[in-house]
Amino acid sequence: MKKMNNRVIVSIVIALVLVVAIIASAAYIITDEKEERKTVILVIEEEAIGDGSYNDLVFKGIKSASAEANVSYIAGSESMKDKLDKATSQTPDIIWTVPSKTNKEVIDSAKANPDILYVMVDFQSEEKLDNLITISFNSNESSFLGGCAAAMLTETNVVGFVGGQESEVIEAFEYGYKAGVDYASKILGKNVETISQYADSFTDKDKGRTIAQELYEGGCDVIFQAAGVTGIGVIEEAKVYDKWVIGSDSDQEYLAPDNVLTSVIKEITKATALVNEQLVNDEKLAVQNVVFDFSNGAEGIVQGNLTDNQYKDIMQIKEKILSGDINVPDDKLSYEKFIQNFVQL
């Protein structure tokens, strides 16, 4: 067998080196891409996800970035602190939370873990932290429109409100709704009473049914529920009594097509998807407190069972809110001020 000349040997060696280099580069690229995928964890107060509640809408938005990030959630019966500790032990890049009553625990966790970015949904923090972002919605404004719808449709002149747990977020729903009832009542020459009850739970359908029974039997013929899964119990009772109910967060007409008058919506899934995508891609947000409202299309009310004319009238009221002609209250104090000013008109 003839010996290979030196030039051929050198060519073969170079080729082998190139092959090894390409394989090594490919391995590096694969490893590097895997390392660059961010880890995102949603931590919730409740015990589970999958019941169609508010947490599900938030998680759906976060999951939309699953192609660029490893997304998971932590739920359970443990305390919020324990669940946050479990999350931080995984050294994630981003922790999302939906705290209705554990704001302090989330902020404390953020302070203790400055390298992790925290996002709190439905909360505005007065405390500025470099690793904390909050998302809030002007739900009082869309609830005001729901109150206008209730005032238009009531025949008994008694309407109801069912909240999950008392908090600033749910109070914004309640007082925005009550103000809308009062506003439309005056325009229509009615005197409509609003009765409010809280279930002290976002997950108790039976409690929602019980409260709805009391309100419907007490004379209410329209109820606005802002109570998560508990609110589904209210909707189910609306079918039993053949009365009106107003949905919240998403269009809930599918649950009772003949009884859901309208739904006060906030595009929570789109909002969380938008913010999460920016964070996963390392895009800097312009503000620490991100507010979604009528102006960016994140809040509104669907036509549902409202007539064309009724919906048109409500959209005209929405324009007055956008223009600043109507300042919608979001708590008891601002509601009382609204009533004082409104009575003088």
From TrEMBL:
Domain called ABC transporter substrate-binding protein PnrA-like: residue spans: 38-332
Transmembrane segments: none
Keyword Transmembrane helix assigned: no
Matches recorded under InterPro entries: BMP_lipoprotein, PnrA-like
Compartments, as annotated in UniProt: Cell membrane
Protein name, UniProt field: Basic membrane lipoprotein
Record-level GO cellular component terms: plasma membrane
Main location: membrane
Keyword set, alphabetical order: Cell membrane, Lipoprotein, Membrane, Signal
One Pfam assignment: Bmp
